Fold:
Amino acid sequence: TQSTWGVAKEGSTMSAQGFSFDLHQRNLHLESSGAKLPRSFKTGTTIVGLVFKDGIVLGADTRATGGTVVCDKNCEKIHYIASNIYCCGAGTAADTENATATISSQLELHRLNTGRQPRVVAAMTLLKRMLFKYQGHVSAALVLGGVDDTGAHLYEIFPHGSTQKLPFVTMGSGSLAAMSVFESKFRHNLELEDAKSLVHQAIRAGIFNDLGSGSNVDLCVITKGNVQMLRNYEIANHRPSKRLYDFPRGTTAVWRDLSKVVVEEDGVAMEM
Structure:
């Protein structure tokens, strides 16, 4: 928490205040008393973006995980912000969904009030201010891209609110694998097909080299006055048809008399 800053006046006993670490001391006391504090856990995703000759290409995998369990094999990680702005989200699914939806609503009100298309820097500023307000407790790492009257813009937004404007970015647990592709093959002023191919390769690198990323490849191409969502651009982990088992009835013996079943619990035999 951050307390209010005070200004010390001449002859006054008021002193300037800073950060309060009372909650840190409380947590140490609780932990020493045997209380189990909540622990953070690793999230998984590969999201990328790059600037090409005519606009922006965003990419994402489609695996949603809860710990070590794959909860959704084909989720959407490229979120709508405005008609000319889209955003990839990594981190906690609920946080990325709600953070982007909140800013999208605010930008739509701004568009209706001004009668103008929102700029990418406006979306970036709203997102970073909201994330900074929560000091990183909203787990949303974002890749924001769009095209407005001033050109194509790509931003990397961290959960604590810091931002970077770069020609290509990667985020998520598979970001290192994706970045290796970008750093070796990225060129300025790429053509559309080359940009799509490069983003595609970067997402595939995350899918096949990171356990938290997987399933399919989604792309989003943003150009002046046009957006093309390429859902399931590649199904990278296609499963063949399931094997049809055909065993004759009675192949597996079934014990139908359950009265003779004995279950041992803590060394004590119990009949069922």
Summary: The two ends are 57 Å apart (CA to CA). The mean pLDDT is 88. The chain has five helices and 14 strands.
